[in-house]
């Protein structure tokens, strides 16, 4: 007999590591890019894109085996996946569950859309944005990147 739970499980459970759940649909690959996770460290990474969710219409999910991500590492994800929950898994059990929190600023992950900004010139200046309630403001030129525009300005993708 196949239970409903069996039918619904799309990405295998992990034994030890981090599950980034309730990721805004379509953002899973950006999550990996921002966290600089590409499997080159040998860790197993599973992703689900556009999987059904109770809480969101559809969601993405990212599971990283063998790595426990810290709050400061994951907070930057809030700019592309504000509803994300971070589950730390040990021996198959969720031992910690936290929400991502908007940091005060983000450095190096978004590029400034202003072509005259010093960060887009041939200068070794990394980008820095102040995090507002609905977007980001370039610390150098003041240009605003709205939350819904961030995906197209990711410097890491
Ligand atoms: N998970 C996993 N491997 C485990 C344990 C959990 O991949 N060994 C995943 C689950 O599939 C789920 C997420 O981690 O996507 C959170 O697990 P859990 O807290 O058990 O699920 P829910 O109660 O549904 O979480 P929430 O209330 O946050 O939706
Ligand atoms: Zn700028």
Automatic annotation (TrEMBL):
Keywords: Metal-binding, Pyrimidine biosynthesis, Transferase, Zinc. The keyword Cell inner membrane does not apply. GO terms for cellular component: aspartate carbamoyltransferase complex. Binds 1 zinc ion per subunit. The keyword Metal-binding applies. GO terms for biological process: 'de novo' pyrimidine nucleobase biosynthetic process; pyrimidine nucleotide biosynthetic process. Zn(2+) binds at residues 112, 117, 138, 141. GO terms for molecular function: metal ion binding; transferase activity. InterPro entries: Asp_carbamoyltransf_reg_N, Asp_carbamoylTrfase_reg, Asp_carbamoyltrfase_reg_C, Asp_carbatrfase_reg_C_sf, Asp_carbatrfase_reg_N_sf. Its cofactor is Zn(2+). Residues 9-101 form the Aspartate carbamoyltransferase regulatory subunit N-terminal domain. Residues 105-150 form the Aspartate carbamoyltransferase regulatory subunit C-terminal domain. PANTHER family: ASPARTATE CARBAMOYLTRANSFERASE REGULATORY CHAIN (PTHR35805:SF1). HAMAP family: Asp_carb_tr_reg. Contains catalytic and regulatory chains. Involved in allosteric regulation of aspartate carbamoyltransferase. Belongs to the PyrI family. This is Aspartate carbamoyltransferase regulatory chain. It comes from Halopelagius inordinatus. The gene is pyrI.
């Amino acid at each position: 007999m196949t239970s409903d739970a069996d039918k619904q499980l799309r990405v295998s459970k992990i034994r030890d590591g981090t599950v980034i759940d309730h990721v805004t649909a379509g953002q899973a690959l950006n999550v990996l890019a921002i966290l600089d996770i590409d499997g080159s460290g040998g860790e197993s990474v599973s992703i689900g894109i556009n999987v059904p969710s109770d809480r969101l219409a559809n969601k993405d999910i990212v599971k990283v085996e063998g790595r426990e991500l810290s709050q400061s590492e994951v907070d930057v994800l809030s700019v592309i996946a504000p509803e994300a929950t971070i589950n730390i898994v040990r021996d198959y059990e969720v031992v910690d569950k936290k929400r991502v929190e908007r940091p005060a600023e983000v450095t190096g992950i978004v590029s400034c859309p202003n072509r005259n900004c010093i960060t887009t010139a041939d200068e070794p200046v990394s980008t820095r944005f102040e995090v507002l309630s609905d977007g980001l403001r370039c610390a150098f030129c003041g240009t605003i990147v709205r939350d819904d525009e961030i995906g197209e300005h990711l410097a890491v993708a």
